[in-house]
Amino acid sequence: MTARVHDAIIALLLEGGVQACTFSAVAERAHIERSTLYRRFPDRWEAILDSLMRRAAADLMPDFGNSFAEDLGSVLRKVRDTLETPFGPAVLEIAAEFRSRPAHRVPRAYFDRRMEQLAPMFDNAIARSELPADIDREALFASAAGPIYFRMFIAGRDVDDDFIHTIVSNVCWLYCTPSAAAKLSLPARIA
Description:
Helices cover 71% and strands 0% of the residues.
């Protein structure tokens, strides 16, 4: 039943945006009673968040390699590929709608859960001594993903693999340990 609900929510978001994603429409599309949704989710925003997290877990997890740079590059390529689909503009609409509700905790909850999903990537890099143990994971990931959103949706430019490689290099130069950055042939940071 949960998969049907998630699929219905994603389909409705793609077809009509956030406004189309009512409990009535989700229940009809998922072939369930509306009361089932009310028992599972306190409101439609939580249902949307749950669906987005399921989609992120399926589509945006890294293909683990032998380095943080490989792992981060994998995640960023998946972010780009997802944003290039019809789901990309829908994600921005959802984010704008969430942002317009400052008292609502959904945007923070989404990002916190997304960071939990990415924890193995950071944990592996820390275990390999590529990142310091006290790394600000949120700042690092925002530094990596932010340029993709900006380039695609603000600047209106393509995000190719060279651009992603540049992001990864810059992020590693800023955040990775000096020995890890050296493996990427990055210039030394100024102390």
